[in-house]
Design brief:
Helix content is 36%, strand content 13%. The chain is α/β, with parallel strands linked by helices and 327 residues long. Strand 1 and strand 2 form a beta hairpin. It binds NADP nicotinamide-adenine-dinucleotide phosphate. NADP nicotinamide-adenine-dinucleotide phosphate (NAP) binds next to helix 12.
Length: 327
């Protein structure tokens, strides 16, 4: 498994990581704890050494599962995220950051996460949502620096909103952020223009989330797709979301057909062609999918021709955007 350096930090991680939201036991369906732990073990065997979780996922349950599975692997890198205290997941410009991420809340959540993960230090700690209107506030940063000084975190991150990839750029420019997590996939290429140039200039690590557009790219949905009860994609998305995703994926299929690669491989390779990306984190609790996704790191890069075709679709407005629940 190839590794990439996380911006200016001393952390290096596998270029394919694992998103563990699927191990929350709720909005992505439920499996047993043993199945989740087996899936994480498969990831380790496949060379993955970076795992993303969040306090929000299953209200601490996912962090506990990840902590348990990785307790014998102290060198494996884990990121987690602090939820907004007011529980508003798409932070609004008129929202007061004190209601989302006060220093006291940051400190309290960090302690809970450390306990859940069974670690003395969290490698990367993200704020789980953001808004561009908070460019002039630094109390959150001072609280994170204090955690760094206390040895409780190694890297400071912000997870920016869907289609709002540049909203933390001013803090990035001011040198306050080590890593940004953003939606970046074939359908959502905007970060290439609004986030990556600044990240490259300031050596900020990038974690690419939702590489399969929450499953749309790899699941052969139809426009009348129904999700199991409790699946967030049937609960939190606009009525036309599935049909829009299916339409966009149909425009990509002919390009994939002209290669000997699977859609999932092309989706991950598209992201990894960009060297500003440190790691891509496909979310999965399936051992088979985790193995398959990890194996993509060893494949050759996509040809300029395929890259160009995928980029042209986005530039022409034939594909655009995703939706992952607003965070
Ligand atoms: N605001 C935020 O900070 C935020 C928001 C969303 C996500 N995230 C993080 O990013 C991670 C990834 O995003 P995501 O999970 O929302 O979306 P995603 O990775 O684009 O898609 C996940 C879906 O793809 C399926 N899948 C994975 N590998 C596959 C394969 N090879 N073939 C077919 N299906 C496959 C998964 O099902 P199986 O489980 O069956 O494999 C799941 O249904 C999350 O786990 C989480 O850690 C962060």
């Amino acid at each position: 498994m190839k590794k990439r350096k996380l911006g200016k930090t001393d952390i290096s991680i596998s270029e394919v990581g694992l998103g563990t939201w699927q191990m929350s036991g709720d909005v992505w369906g439920k499996k047993t704890e043993a199945e989740y732990i087996q899936a994480i073990e498969v990831a380790i065997e496949a060379g993955i050494d970076y795992f993303d979780t969040a306090l929000e996922y299953g209200n601490g349950y996912c962090e506990q599962v990840v902590g348990q599975a990785l307790q014998g692997h102290p060198s494996v890198v884990i990121s987690s995220k602090i939820p907004p205290e007011c529980d508003e997941w798409s932070a609004k410009p008129q929202g007061n950051i004190d209601d989302y991420f006060s220093p006291a809340w940051i400190s309290k959540c960090c302690e809970t996460t450390l306990k859940n993960l069974r670690r003395e230090c969290i490698d990367i700690l993200f704020l789980h949502t953001w808004n561009v209107a908070w460019g002039d506030r630094t109390e959150w940063y001072e609280a994170m620096v204090k955690l760094k000084e206390e040895g409780k975190i190694r890297a400071i991150g912000i997870s920016v909103g869907d289609r709002r990839a540049s909203e933390a750029n001013s803090h990035m420019e001011a040198g306050r952020i080590d890593v940004v997590m953003a939606v970046y996939n074939i359908l959502e290429q905007e970060p290439e223009y609004t986030l990556f140039p600044m990240a490259k200039k300031h050596q900020v690590g990038i974690v690419a989330r939702c590489p399969f557009s929450s499953g749309a790219l790899v699941s052969n949905w139809t426009s009348s797709q129904k999700f199991p009860e409790g699946d967030w994609r049937g609960l939190w998305t606009p009525d036309d979301w599935v049909a829009e995703q299916v339409e966009m994926v149909d425009r990509i299929k002919p390009i994939v057909k002209n290669t000997d690669l699977s859609m999932s491989a092309i989706a991950l390779k598209y992201i990894l062609h960009n060297q500003t990306v440190t790691s891509v984190i496909p979310g999965s609790s399936s051992r088979e999918h985790i193995r398959k996704n990890a194996s993509v790191a060893a494949l050759p890069n996509l040809s300029e021709e395929i890259l160009g075709q995928l980029q042209q679709l986005w530039l022409d407005g034939k594909i655009h955007g995703t939706y992952n629940g607003g965070a």
